Each structure stands twice: as structure tokens, then as C-alpha cells.
Amino acid sequence: MFEQLQPIKADAILSLSVEFRADTNPNKVDLGVGVYKTEEGHTPVLAAVKQAEAFLLQNQASKTYLAPTGNAGFNDRMLSLVFGDDHIVMQNKRARAVQAPGGTGALSLGARLIARCTPGATVWVSNPTWANHIPLLQGAGLNLKEYTYYDGQAKAIDFAGMMNDLNNVKAGDVVLIHGCCHNPCGADLSLEQWQKLTDLINDKGATPFVDLAYQGFGSGLEEDVQGLRYMAANVKELLVAASCSKNFGLYRERVGATMVVSATEQSASNAVDNLGVVARAIWSMPPDHGAAVVDTILSSQELTTLWHQELKEMCDRINGLRTVVASSMKDAGIAQSFDFMTGEKGMFSFLGISPEQVATLKRDYSIYMVSSSRINVAGLNSNNLPYFVESMKAILG
Ligand code: LMR
Fold first, then answer.
1. Active-site residue 211, yes or no?
2. Which of 51, 115, 183, 267 is the residue whose CA sits 20 to 30 A from 396?
3. Are 120 and 183 within one domain?
4. 279 and 207 in one domain?
């Protein structure tokens, strides 16, 4: 059986970490995988998480199974975090959530629910998008189409191109949208653009599927979901895949949630039951620890306040770095402007250099980034920034 398998090309994002670890250059810089790093280049366990874990260690009474839909307290708190308790879909009980293993698990559950409703449905994904969206959606038996999103020349969203492509959406299609902090380009839709997109989705009879992997990393927890909340209030149905990997720093604990907004309370409940059946057939029950931590934090005023502070610190550091990178490039005499980075959000930006230049940076300078020139801005700090800027000057002239 296994003789038939072919060797596979290494994952474009994850393989960078392996190469980086093997590199012995003391000046090496890792701008690859999207994990937050402190000024010291460390990905910490948040203090709020540590305290929640200490609480669980003392108080968790059992590790018996929960349910395929996960921890009910966690699910409710995640809905409040994403939509806000006053939102119409919360008031009408049209929004429900199911715990999933990470944002990827949440996306996969959502994709499988779509396939259960409409086998072979078409999902429109932005060009560019997170590389894993493609195999994940295809693996659920869905068909993919691309819509224009980012203009590499203008270093901005090509909204006219996006709307033009989405004009070809058919009734029953799904449109995958990055909720905030677009991965890989960092360029986010304005509220006005979310409003226009909502109108188009309604005109076409399509369903939005929002990937929300970075809530709190752009401008703040509330600010980052303004577009999503507007859309949720104005469409019949919507799916969200929320991740707690980045905003709670719980990467390896694998915790996220698939959320469904449906036309009625009954159809939302049916959707959750179907999600439970899908989950049961894949992992049966989601891993508990990460969700228990998030539930503990969000059910304590004190821990929530601490978490808000820590999240703001991460967000402010990244936004500060964006300004410092752009000005350092200018100060170094690099003709090309990087000011566009200051208007972008979240961990990522495209530097806008060629794959050959990316390869040169890796080979000659031990600076690692995805070949599209996507960098994890959080990988920069005051120690490695001068070396990064100097190396960029060397390749750009
Ligand atoms: C990334 O895009 O770097 C992160 O979302 C990590 C991953 O799994 O690809």
C-alpha cells in the first residue's frame, strides 16, 4: 500500500522553522511562521494563561469526556468575544459555537458543514490567502475559486478587482473572508468595504465564511471585529472560524471555535448538532486544556483584565515595529518606501521583493521568510532590526 505514496514537497511555511533551527549563523533572523515574539525573540506563555492553568491544576475535578461540541462555557464566551452580547444575532439566539482544535480545526469543521449542506459547493478564496486554506477546503470536497484581493504594485487592496471577481459568485457559493489581520498581506478591508461586500453577498445569495485567527492583533478586540459584526447583523447566514492560538498564545494547545449564524434559533441549533456529528466522526471530542484555560480567563474579571493588557501589549509592539521598520528603511537610504507597512494590521506584511531576493536573504544573510516575501513583523526586534535593514539595503541597493 505505502509503496504507492510519493515524496511530498515540504510545507512552505513550516519548513522555514526547520531550516532556521539548523542554521548556525548567530545573526539569523526568523520572520517565517506566524507566532508572536517578544523583544527578546521569545514566544511567552501569557501570565493570564499561567494563572488559569494554576487554577485548573487546583480545581479541575475530572478529565472525563465533555462532548463532541466541546466545553459549553467556552463556546458561549467565545460567541460573546466575537459578536458581543448585545449583537442582534446573540439576542435572537441565532449564533452558536462549537469548540474545535485550533483555527484549522474550526475551519475544517466549517468546511465539512458546508459540504454536508451542499456537496461540492464553491468557496471563493482571496488571492493571496493563507496557504493551508487551499488543501483544507479541497480536503472537505469543496471547489475553489479565487478573487483578487491584493495589488502587489500598489501595495494595497484592489477592492475594485475584488468586487469585479465576486460579481461572478453564484447563489449557494461561499466567500471566505479574513476577519482581520489578513494572512499573508496584512491589508484589511475598511468598514465601508465590509458594507459593500455584505451587499454583494446578499445580492448574490452567497454565504460568508470568516476566518478570524487574529482578533485583537490589529487595532483591538472590538475594533478588529467591526466589519464581521456589521456583516453578521445584515446577512441571513454566516460561518466564523475563530482561533485562540495567537490572541491567547495557546498555539500548541489547539483551541478555536466554529460559529454559525443561522436564519432562526432552530436552524442554528440544527447546525450545531450537525457540527457535533462531523466532529464525532473525526476527533470525537476536541482537546480540553486550551478551551478550559480560555473559559477560566473569560469567566474571571481579573484574568480577563490581565489578558486584555497582555494582548494590547502584543498588538502595540507589532504596530510600533511597523513604524520603526518603515522609518529605519528610509533612514538607511533605501529608495523603496516601506510606509505601506504602517497602515497594515497583524503579524504579516509582504516586503514586495522577488522570490530570488527572498532566496538570497536566506542563503547569504540567514534571514528567513516565506518565498512570497511575507514576513512575520513580530520576528523583528531592536537587536536584529539593524542587521535586517542592512541586509535589505544590500539586496535592494
Ligand atoms: C502562519 O501563517 O504562519 C501561521 O498561521 C502558522 C501556520 O500554521 O501556517
1. yes
2. 183
3. yes
4. yes
Q: Does the pLDDT at position 307 exceed 90?
A: yes
34 CB within 6 A, ligand 1? yes
- Non-local (6+) Cβ contacts of 333 within 8 A are 393
Classify residue 292 by its DSSP letter: H
Is any ligand 1 atom within 6 A of the Cβ of residue 370?
no
Do the strands 256-261 and 238-243 form a parallel or antiparallel pair, or are they unpaired?
antiparallel
**pLDDT tens for residues 170-211?**
999 999 999 999 999 999 999 999 999 999 999 999 999 999
Residue 90 CA, ligand 1 centroid: distance in Å: 30
For the CA atoms of the chain, what is the radius of gyration? 21
Query: Residue 22's pLDDT is what?
Result: 97
Residue 211 shares a structural domain with residue 167 = yes
33 lines ligand 1 (CB under 6 A): yes
Q: Is residue 312 annotated as part of the catalytic site, yes or no? A: no
Our count of domains for the chain comes to 2
Rounded to 5 degrees, what are φ and ψ at 319?
-65, -35
φ/ψ of 102, rounded to 5, equals 75, 175
Going from the Cα of 146 to the center of ligand 1, the distance in angstroms, rounded, reads 20
User: Do 287 and 356 reside in the same domain of the chain?
Assistant: no
Q: Is 128 contained in some domain?
A: yes
Residue range of the domain that includes 174: 65-299
Residue of minimum CA distance from atom 1 in ligand 1: 34
- CATH number of the domain residue 273 falls in: 3.40.640.10
Catalytic residue (one of 28, 37, 130, 158):
130
How many percent of the chain have pLDDT more than 70? 100
